[in-house]
Specification:
Length: about 500
């Protein structure tokens, strides 16, 4: 009896000591770093030196937190420490970070035949949430899904949404001003929180037809659950592993609840769109009717459709809000640019010209968006994908299937092409005679993607952002309220509050 008690205690002590050492010296990470480098060797063709590689941190590698939440800081830090081409880990998957235009071109010139990384190398939770969405599938599956979902996003289609989107932006700004202003002459805008709902509802109306109050309420009720699953996916951890579905983790339960509610809500919205069509209440078929028809005739999978609709309404809209917030912060911080924009709006925008003005790709408003997205791309690193053939990139020979990501911050801000005023917000650089010659910037400016496969929503998202910017700046003068010296771009932050003061002569 005594002997067995002693033995149990010895075993417990050994296990505790091992766990302590494993945690204290991060042994799992060290062991995996060594193994992964041996398993996936990459050497410089001339010097024979191994590719600079970040250590693997168990279990996420660098993971989404380092890549996306702290991407802007890490773009600089990793570039300084590891050079212009290096490798990071997303889970157990190596991803080569390319930072120079010539390397981007070598990889992305045939992006339409690239293979997207399975669930963006983010593991089980991401696979269940968005693993089959348009942006993360490849080959024939991608072609089918793109064909079935792209009609409402083509440039021509975007022209038909102008009136509705303008109406959404007017209503939204008017209700914010009424809610937040004591005096009706000034109020404070908190870009992220105050604006999120605007493109969300505007895009939902485009996809499903004008939502009834009940559908709108039900949709908004799904948002917190979706946010919580997405946050868990970004944090990673055990839900990266498929085995996590057998454990009573809250994140797995939240995922199941969200997927059930999302499917149910889409069915209700589809039924309502059909009702409106059949009663003649709606002039045109809502796009969701055609998308459900593609599921019914077998050319698209229901799960792929639901995930693609999630991708459009949740995943990509969240990044759009970041982009919109930055554009407004820049306008508030650079009064000269704001004044010039207001002049252009007063001169060029009338009810008859609003479509042409808002969809133009060459006016000052468009240049404001391009410049804002240059300085603060919505994410610092692109999603992971591989080319179908081997590539020589810088001095490294990389086999087919090697995964690549692009350091958008390095390209957009710190590439010599943009110097010497590369950190200044100067929309004029995009005017004729500036840097905008397509060949100069084709692989040196990341916004909607490189090569032939690019963002599906690019015309619609630009329209939504422009309509809101126009509505805001023509009625209200924007200024940053901050203790800091805000004219220095490095201290600007997209979560800063923006003071909005009614423009003289615009009192209602
Ligand atoms: C400022 C906001 C946005 C930016 C900067 C942006 C940028 C991008 C980028 C870089 C890609 C990846 C292209 C690739 O390399 O494969 C992408 C894909 C995609 N985006 Fe956007 N996006 C934005 C907003 C939106 C919105 C609002 C939608 C909603 C319809 C949307 C729908 C999509 C879809 C469905 C894909 C996948 C396309 C495909 O793989 O065929 N995006 N976007």
């Amino acid at each position: 009896m005594l002997l067995s008690i002693i033995l149990v205690n010895i075993v417990a002590a050994i296990v505790a000591a091992t766990l302590f050492l494993v945690r204290r010296y991060d042994l799992l990470s060290r062991v995996f770093t060594t193994l992964l480098k041996l398993w996936y060797p990459i050497y410089d063709a001339d010097t024979g030196l191994p590719m600079p590689t970040l250590p693997f941190i168990f279990p996420n590698g660098q993971g989404n937190v380092a890549k996306f939440l702290h991407g802007h800081e890490n773009s600089i830090k990793w570039g300084n420490e590891y050079g212009h081409i290096y490798r990071i880990w997303s889970g157990f998957h190596g991803e080569i970070v390319v930072t120079r235009p010539e390397d981007v071109e070598a990889v992305f010139r045939d992006s339409h035949i690239h293979l997207k990384a399975n669930a963006n190398d983010s593991g089980y939770l991401m696979h269940q949430l968005l693993g089959s969405c348009l942006g993360l599938v490849s080959g024939a599956e991608w072609k089918n899904l793109r064909r079935a979902t792209e009609p409402p996003f083509l440039r021509n289609a975007a022209t038909s949404y102008v009136g509705a989107v303008e109406e959404h932006s007017k209503e939204h700004i008017a209700s914010l001003a009424a809610l937040k202003s004591d005096t009706s002459t000034s109020w404070k805008l908190e870009p992220h929180g105050d604006l999120r709902i605007y493109p969300f509802l505007a895009l939902a109306d485009i996809l499903y037809g004008r939502l009834t109050p009940d559908l709108k309420e039900r949709l908004l009720a799904i948002v917190p659950g979706r946010d919580s699953v997405f946050r868990a996916m970004v944090q990673g951890g055990w839900t990266r592993f498929p085995i996590s579905r057998f454990f009573p983790f809250k994140d797995i339960r939240d995922l199941r609840t969200f997927k059930r509610d999302w499917g149910h809500w889409n069915d209700l919205a589809h039924a309502e769109a059909i009702r409106k069509r059949d009663t003649g209440e709606a002039k045109d078929d809502a796009p969701v009717i055609h998308m459900y028809a593609r599921v019914a005739d077998g050319s698209m999978d229901r799960e792929a459709l639901l995930q693609t609709l999630d991708e459009m309404l949740f995943a990509n809209l969240d990044v759009s809000i970041g982009g919109l917030a930055w554009a407004l912060v820049f306008l508030a911080a650079y009064p000269r640019v704001q004044d010039r924009l207001v002049q252009e709006i007063r001169a060029d925008l009338t009810p008859e010209t609003s479509g042409t003005y808002l969809l133009s790709q060459s006016n000052y408003l468009h240049h404001v968006l391009l410049e804002s997205a240059r300085l603060r791309p919505v994410v610092a690193f692109s999603v992971s994908q591989s080319a179908p053939t081997a590539r020589r990139v810088s001095n490294f020979l990389l086999p087919a299937g090697t995964k690549f990501i692009v350091d958008a911050d390095q390209l957009n801000v710190r590439d010599p092409l943009w110097g010497p005023d590369n950190t200044t917000f100067r929309p004029e650089r995009w005017a004729d005679g500036g840097v905008k010659r397509a060949k100069d910037i084709r692989y040196c400016y990341w916004r909607f993607g490189f090569g032939p496969r690019v963002c599906l929503g690019k015309y619609v998202v630009d329209l939504m952002m422009k309509a809101l910017i126009v509505e805001l700046v023509r009625g209200w003068e924007l200024r940053i309220e901050s203790e800091k010296e805000w004219a220095n771009m490095e201290v600007l932050d997209s979560s800063m509050k923006i003071a909005c003061t009614r423009r003289v002569g615009d009192e209602k």
